[in-house]
Amino acid sequence: MGHLSHLVDDARLSTRQAELLDSWLPGAVVEADHTWEIAHRAVLEVRHGTERLIVKAGRADDHHMDREITAHQQWLAPWTRRERAPRAVHLDQEARLLVSTYLPGRLVLDTPAADDPDTFEQAGQLLALLHGQSSVTDPDAEAALNARTLRWLDAPHRISDATTRALREEIRSWPTPPTVLVPTHGDWQPRNWLVHDGRVSIIDFGRADLRAAMSDLARLAALDFARDAALEAAFLRGYGSDPREPAAWRRTRIREAVGTAVWAFQVGDRDFEEQGHAMIAAALT
Fold first, then answer.
1. Residue 268's domain spans which residues?
2. Residue 240 shares a structural domain with residue 116
3. Residues facing residue 41 across a β-bridge
4. pTM of the model as a whole
5. CA distance 78 to 100
6. Is the CB of residue 14 less than 8 Å from the CB of residue 60?
7. pLDDT of 165-224, one tens digit each?
8. GO molecular function of the protein, one example (predicted)?
């Protein structure tokens, strides 16, 4: 291992973040930098005494950190009680700063675990725990989601003109029934699952929010379920039911697909953008 840097010396930290970390974790050193360069936050694996911890420090405009902290405050207990998600140790929402426990393991994406039905059954079980905590009926959610998707289509993107016209026409035709909302992860797919000794755990809650339960299946359906029906069957077995009502599912898939393609284009993530275009094609068929 090379030279370890002191956590509070990281230039990406605001003055307030450095002050808080110095008080919470005096003398902590950085062991690894897990920052996703297109995101608006530093993600650092640190050592403080005998503890290994993860520090996430967002910029002033990083609203994903708000969601992550809210998730830790309100929704992760069913997982943290089972040590299947990191537990918040320190947090400050105003400073957009979070310190959580370190979970051992490797990302499921691009490993043999990504083709193992047991991984997906465990993921289904975990998602059912998250979704089952609470629910609220919102009469305005569908209209708000439709408007948001149309705004995505107004923004710069690489969706073809013909597809954009077809999407606009369909979205404007949709009904807006009341929607049951539950706590959701918002990016539920193998790149946010860890596996350690065959046990699946969950990370990254920057898109957590109250949504329809089926929204957490949209990215899986476009990629993993589409390539192997056994993974879909295992996931639903773990989840315990199938939350996808056909008409609402089509609306959900299209919204998720458009948001993925446009956002990924805006931040320059070409692979994720291609995923979004594949999701659009799948949803429209």
1. 106-284
2. yes
3. 58
4. 0.92
5. 16
6. yes
7. 999 999 999 999 999 999 999 999 999 999 999 999 999 999 999 999 999 999 999 889
8. transferase activity
